[in-house]
Amino acid sequence: MKHFLLGTIFGAAAGTVFSCMKDSEGNRPGKPLKDEFDAFKHETSRFNQALQKAKKASQNLNDQMPQAERTISDISDNIEKYSRHIEPTVDKIKQKSDQLNQDFGENNIVK
Question: Of 7, 21, 65, 92, which sits 20 to 30 A from 27 (CA to CA)?
Answer without folding.
Answer: 7
